[in-house]
Specification:
4 helices; 3 strands; alpha+beta; three-stranded mixed beta sheet; about 100 residues
Length: about 100
């Protein structure tokens, strides 16, 4: 959720770039920049953005595992041998000697 204190006009951001960058670094919260009173741009500290990307990737992995478990419970899953064989073919992986 965006904090109302983190909504600024693009003009204010342009006039006070250093202060905004320091605020972004310190709080790690994104700022919403407005143009003519309407939200147009979101800016965020790079480290906070990377953390957001990492969280999204982890969430996607968890969803994938949950779907797999649901498939097993429903009896629609694929046997491990078949799944590994399919991956080996798809990625050109040969069995180890």
């Amino acid at each position: 959720m965006i904090n109302l204190m983190d909504i600024h006009s693009l003009s204010d951001f342009q006039r006070n770039v250093r202060a905004h960058v320091e605020h972004l670094r310190r709080t790690r919260r994104p700022e919403v920049l407005t143009v003519h009173g309407r939200a147009e741009i979101v800016v965020q500290n790079a480290a906070a953005y990377q953390k957001l990307l990492d969280l999204a990737a982890n969430a996607a992995a968890i969803v994938g595992v949950q779907r797999g478990l649901q498939g097993v419970e429903a009896g629609t899953g694929e046997a491990a041998e078949d799944a590994f064989a399919s991956l080996e073919r798809e990625f050109g992986i040969s069995e180890r000697p």
